[in-house]
């Protein structure tokens, strides 16, 4: 921007910097949950302010042992850390014979070589190493890249004549800037920054920031810049040098925000400031690494702030604290450029859909406890983002939600998540009121043998199956009919039939099953056969799709489940299920089914590998079909249950969706399908009853079916039970103050005489 900010008053500097931060990052302030690994406190440099570097006589060992690295990594994981911050002195083996001897005993020639091994150990314990190793050669940077998701080197100051650096040749500005350039050429995301108050002037700081900006613009690898205030320490050369004034420090932060590219994240350490609110006022959008398990070994006299307390302070100032990874989301989205492929499994372990860290210890399919206050409404006086206001306005005017605004809603973080929830639940109340529905049904998975090899599926069994939870099976027709009869006896109005694509099936199999069920149990609604089963059946018989669907309808089929959809976005399908039907084929099956008088629903399996754009594409293409055919009864979001799936076990998928993603997909369904699909269902099998109750406040109105037996989610590792009774559904609805109503498959009320039949027997007790 055209300006001379050094002439501005401090008040104006801070105001302009805060505006840039708010316009770029909104109300989200990030931090990295970390553990500090003091790899070696020996250093060949002597800086006038440093107490981290120590003489050999003051340390028990020159380096952390392998055992210490592993032990700290394990305790850090238990304590919630994601980042392993390796901080060390520079090349102590060049100065201290003890360091050289200890390295030799460990089997290494250099500190950097041993560092590679130590970082690898932390990575094996599922921490993400961030390495601060000082000035490094191109070869050393390249050697560390496979073990480090990011690296850092502080420029500190561009002034070459500072007294505090006269015995520290590695602090030469040119050397440190060259390390940043070399890292950029190698595709390494870097942290750098300035240390304020060590003899530098404002002109020095301006020149240093401009040098950093040039590297950021040329290489794109400067992901964050730290503006750190000098703190004098006893027994150092600068022990009696006063720290920088509050005004000088805040001006430095604001100048950085205004001079650096807007994409660069700006950080200041919260443990070195009395008031985090002051840092916000100067334009920071990140508070760096904060540890629950280790001290700040560089500033041990300054404890880390309590994260929950810090979040409360930020909320008071109108900002939400959000955890991140040691590499920022924009770099993770371009992972082929910035990240070694070997790091991706650990990144997938920790990341959410947007590239931030998982915010809650919650997983689909797992009996994890719902957090008591997972999302916070916009505090009074905090600006609601324009996209959210525009989205509400479009819906109030009777228009459909535009794709661009749905994408913003799906990317919501911080306070904005609650804004999307509130909008969705308002639409739910306007559309279907306060009634919660369920259907009494039985799930029948007639075979788990499948010729397709979907990488997300732990249910199907084949010769190359990566995970055999149970043995392959194929139910006989008599066994299927017995299950249907048992379901009807226990009050079920529907049976849902789905299975693998058995190699011996032709299209007659599905016709025969449908006809037998309909002839023997004409009152039971037959909801069955995925789009893949229908398409395969038609092809194996050589029949036209429309004719085959009509034949299924004539045989007794009433509706199709929306399964086999996963994500209706072909680049994602090419990874998840490359030999399965395409998006166009799924849409063709359901569109044709609607035309011949069969209804169906929309499902979406989310939380594996897809980005938000794929989610919105899925909603949009099904919305367009539903608007044309009016054939969809409900939207059923299905959170990916990761535990036993092949793609997760290979490290190529996330650990299912986060709670934020799960909430937003349900809310987005309500918003996107407004006027097209009235009913949004929650999967208690994948969410549990606590999760289902919570989602009823996020736009959902239906609890799905009693099921009686569920196989697919449990093959993947879900542990939420295989059946619920009407009484248990009643408890879920009552928990959120809503009225439970039994429905048919087509959302019609069930007659009183049927409701009085005894409910489905308990398969497993589940309670809120």
Number of helices: 29
Percent strand: 5-15%
Regions with pLDDT < 50 over 5+ consecutive residues?
Answer: 463-469, 710-720, 756-768
Helix % is 40-55%
CATH topology of the largest domain: TIM Barrel
Total count of strands: 18
The structure class reads alpha/beta
Radius of gyration computed on alpha carbons:
30 Å
Give the N-terminus to C-terminus distance in angstroms. Answer: 56 Å
Mean pLDDT metric: 92
Quick one: CATH class of the largest domain? Alpha Beta
Q: Report the CATH architecture of the largest domain.
A: Alpha-Beta Barrel
Q: How would the global form be characterised?
A: elongated
Main beta sheet: 9 strands, parallel
CATH superfamily of the largest domain: Aldolase class I
Structurally, how many domains make up the residues? Answer: 2
What does this entry look like structurally?
Strands 1, 2, 3, 4, 5, 6, 7, 8 and 9 form a nine-stranded parallel β-sheet that branches. Helix 7 (202-219) packs parallel to helix 8 (246-259) and helix 16 crosses helix 25. The chain has two domains: 5-324, TIM Barrel (Alpha-Beta Barrel); 401-755, TIM Barrel (Alpha-Beta Barrel). The model is unreliable at 463-469, 710-720 and 756-768 (pLDDT under 50). The chain contains 29 helices and 18 strands. The chain is 41% helix and 13% strand. It is an alpha/beta fold and 768 residues long. The longest helix is centred in the first third of the chain and has 18 residues, at 202-219.
């Amino acid at each position: 921007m055209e300006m001379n900010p050094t002439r501005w008053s401090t008040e104006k500097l801070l105001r302009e910097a805060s505006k840039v931060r708010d316009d770029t990052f909104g109300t989200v302030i990030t931090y990295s949950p970390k553990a500090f690994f003091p790899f070696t406190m020996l250093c060949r440099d002597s800086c006038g302010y440093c107490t981290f570097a120590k003489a050999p006589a003051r340390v028990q060992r020159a380096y952390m042992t392998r055992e210490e690295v592993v032990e700290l990594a394990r305790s850090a994981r238990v304590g919630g850390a994601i980042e392993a911050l390796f901080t060390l002195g520079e090349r102590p083996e060049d100065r201290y014979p003890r360091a050289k001897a200890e390295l030799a005993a460990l089997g290494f020639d250099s500190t950097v070589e041993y560092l590679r091994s130590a970082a690898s150990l932390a990575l094996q314990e599922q921490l993400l190493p961030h390495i601060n190793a000082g000035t490094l050669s191109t070869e050393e940077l390249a050697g560390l890249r496979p073990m480090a998701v990011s690296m850092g080197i502080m420029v500190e100051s561009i002034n070459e004549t500072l007294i505090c650096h006269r015995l520290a040749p590695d602090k030469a500005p040119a050397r440190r800037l060259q390390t940043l350039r070399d890292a950029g050429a190698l595709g390494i995301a870097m942290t750098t920054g300035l240390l304020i108050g060590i003899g530098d002037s404002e002109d020095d700081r301006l020149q240093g920031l401009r040098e950093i900006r040039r590297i950021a613009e040329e290489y794109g690898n400067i992901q964050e810049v730290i503006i750190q205030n000098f703190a004098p320490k006893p027994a150092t050369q600068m022990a009696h040098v006063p720290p920088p004034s509050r005004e000088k420090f805040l001006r430095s932060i604001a100048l950085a925000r205004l001079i650096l590219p807007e994409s660069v994240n700006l950080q200041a350490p919260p443990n070195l400031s009395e008031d985090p609110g002051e840092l916000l006022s100067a334009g920071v959008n990140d508070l760096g690494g904060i540890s629950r398990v280790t001290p700040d070994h560089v500033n041990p006299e300054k404890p880390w702030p309590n994260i929950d307390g810090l979040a409360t302070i930020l909320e008071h100032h109108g900002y939400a604290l959000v955890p991140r990874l040691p590499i920022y989301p924009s770099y993770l989205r371009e992972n082929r450029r910035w990240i070694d492929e070997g790091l991706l499994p650990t990144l997938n372990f920790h990341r959410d859909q947007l590239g931030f860290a998982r915010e809650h210890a919650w997983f689909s399919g797992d009996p994890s406890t719902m957090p008591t206050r997972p999302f916070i409404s916009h505090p009074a006086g905090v600006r609601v983002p324009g996209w959210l206001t525009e989205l509400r306005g479009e819906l109030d005017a009777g228009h459909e939600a535009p794709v661009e605004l749905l994408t913003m809603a799906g990317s919501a973080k911080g306070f904005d998540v609650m804004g999307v929830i509130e909008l969705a639940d308002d639409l739910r109340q306007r559309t279907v009121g306060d009634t919660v529905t369920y259907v009494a049904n039985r799930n029948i998975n007639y075979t788990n043998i499948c010729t397709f090899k979907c990488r997300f599926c732990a249910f199907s069994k084949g010769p190359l199956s990566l995970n055999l939870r149970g043995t392959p099976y194929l139910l006989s027709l008599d066994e299927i009919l017995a299950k249907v009869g048992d379901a009807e006896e226990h009050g079920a109005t529907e049976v849902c039939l789905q299975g693998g694509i058995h190699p011996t099936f032709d299209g007659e199999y599905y016709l025969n099953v449908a006809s037998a069920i309909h002839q023997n149990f004409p009152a039971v609604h037959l909801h069955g056969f995925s789009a893949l089963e229908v398409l395969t059946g038609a092809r194996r018989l050589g029949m036209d799709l429309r004719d085959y669907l009509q034949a299924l309808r004539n045989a007794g089929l009433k509706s199709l489940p929306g399964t086999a959809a996963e994500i209706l976005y072909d680049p994602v399908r090419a990874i998840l299920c490359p030999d399965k039907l395409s998006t166009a084929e799924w849409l063709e099956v359901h569109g044709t089914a609607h035309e011949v008088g069969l209804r169906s629903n929309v499902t979406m399996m989310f939380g594996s590998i897809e980005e938000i754009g794929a989610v919105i594409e899925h909603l949009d293409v099904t919305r367009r079909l539903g608007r044309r055919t009016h054939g969809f009864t409900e939207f059923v979001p299905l959170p990916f249950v990761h535990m036993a799936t092949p793609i997760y076990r290979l490290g190529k998928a996330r650990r299912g969706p986060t709670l934020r993603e799960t909430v937003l997909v349900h809310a987005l369904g309500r918003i996107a399908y407004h006027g097209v699909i009235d009913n949004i269902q929650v999967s208690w099998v994948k969410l549990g009853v606590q999760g289902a109750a919570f989602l009823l406040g996020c736009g959902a109105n239906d609890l799905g079916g009693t099921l009686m037996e569920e196989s697919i989610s449990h093959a993947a590792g879900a542990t939420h039970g295989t059946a619920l009774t009407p009484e248990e559904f009643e408890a879920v609805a009552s928990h959120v103050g809503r009225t439970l109503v039994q429905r048919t498959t087509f959302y019609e009320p069930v007659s009183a005489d049927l409701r009085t039949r005894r409910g489905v027997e308990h398969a497993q007790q589940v309670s809120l």
